[in-house]
């Protein structure tokens, strides 16, 4: 059983979700706006949040950003009536782990939510070193840094950073494709699963955030390099290291 917070100002929808989640064996609490959600989540104790974007006062994007800035990495499933690719990517950049456009099928929402809950309980590998859940690489080290994909952590000199599921997914994709130029379109399709034309500046902003975690000097990146006009390349062994 998981404890889930539903942040939704449409009472009939919120109550319907609460009823169905409880029928699935979960404990479900309600918050009607962004401020109320942040206040409830300060106490911790939730396993996941279903977060609507269009809320009175602080919208879902702002709530997600504040949670992540405060070090709260509870899984976020974002609901949005605005299903444009730009809005989807903006949600991920704010810290969401998955999204679902309204109107949605209840079975799809439950499947997406259960997938997030399962990922947060993946165990560390007990068998082959270097592999984790579903055969994926569990850890990767480079330049005195270490990414633990299962624990959602990145260790850099003198600090440790918690990652969202989406940040870990993006880093995993870059690691798999290290030393290869990866286009913005490829990242949209393979990581965000967005297949329509969108403003790639949202991708650029997301990369900026990852550089703050990885680079000694984010303004002069060595590991997560920009290939002008094309995309990005992850270089775990920059040439200037010899």
Describe this structure in words.
This protein is of the alpha/beta class and about 240 residues long. The protein has two domains: about 5-120, Response regulator (Rossmann fold, 3-Layer(aba) Sandwich), CATH 3.40.50.2300; about 135-240, Winged helix-like DNA-binding domain superfamily/Winged helix DNA-binding domain (Arc Repressor Mutant, subunit A, Orthogonal Bundle), CATH 1.10.10. Helices cover about 35% and strands about 20% of the residues. The protein has a five-stranded parallel beta sheet with strand order 2-1-3-4-5, sandwiched between helices. Strands 6-7-8-9 form a four-stranded antiparallel beta sheet, with helices on one face. It has a three-stranded antiparallel beta sheet with strand order 10-12-11. Strand 11 (about 225) and strand 12 (about 230-235) form a beta hairpin. Helix 2 (about 35-40) packs parallel to helix 3 (about 60-70) and helix 4 runs parallel beside helix 8 (about 200-215). The longest helix has 15 residues, at about 105-120.
The radius of gyration computed from the alpha-carbon positions, rounded to a whole number of angstroms, is 18 Å
Beta-strand segment tally: 12
CATH fold assignment of the largest domain:
Rossmann fold
The CATH architecture category of the largest domain equals: 3-Layer(aba) Sandwich
Q: What is the CATH superfamily classification of the largest domain?
A: Response regulator
Describe the main β-sheet briefly: 5 strands, parallel
Subunit arrangement of the protein: single chain
Tertiary shape: globular
Elements, N to C (H/E):
EHEHEHEHEHEEEEHEHHEE
Give the total of domains: 2
């Amino acid at each position: 059983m998981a404890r889930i917070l539903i942040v939704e100002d449409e009472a009939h929808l919120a109550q319907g979700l609460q009823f169905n989640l409880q029928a699935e064996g979960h404990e479900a609490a309600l918050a009607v706006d962004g401020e109320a959600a942040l206040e409830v989540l300060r106490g911790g104790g939730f396993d996941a949040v279903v977060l609507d974007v269009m809320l009175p006062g602080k919208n879902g994007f702002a709530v997600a950003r504040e949670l992540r800035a405060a070090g709260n990495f509870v899984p976020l499933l974002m609901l949005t009536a605005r299903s444009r690719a730009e809005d989807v990517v903006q949600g991920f950049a704010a810290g969401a782990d998955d999204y679902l456009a309204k109107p949605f099928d209840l079975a799809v929402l439950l499947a997406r939510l259960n997938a997030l809950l399962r990922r947060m309980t993946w165990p560390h590998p007990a068998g082959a070193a270097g592999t984790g859940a579903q055969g994926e690489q569990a850890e990767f080290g480079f330049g005195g840094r270490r990414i633990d994909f299962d624990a959602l952590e990145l260790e850099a000199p003198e600090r440790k950073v918690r990652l969202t599921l989406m940040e870990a997914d993006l880093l995993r994709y870059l690691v798999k494709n290290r030393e290869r130029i990866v286009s913005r379109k490829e990242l949209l399709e393979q990581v965000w699963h967005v297949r329509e034309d969108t403003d790639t500046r949202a991708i650029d902003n997301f990369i900026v955030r990852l550089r703050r975690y990885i680079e000694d000097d984010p303004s002069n990146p060595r590991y997560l390099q920009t290939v002008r006009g094309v995309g990005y390349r992850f270089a775990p062994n920059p040439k200037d290291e010899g």
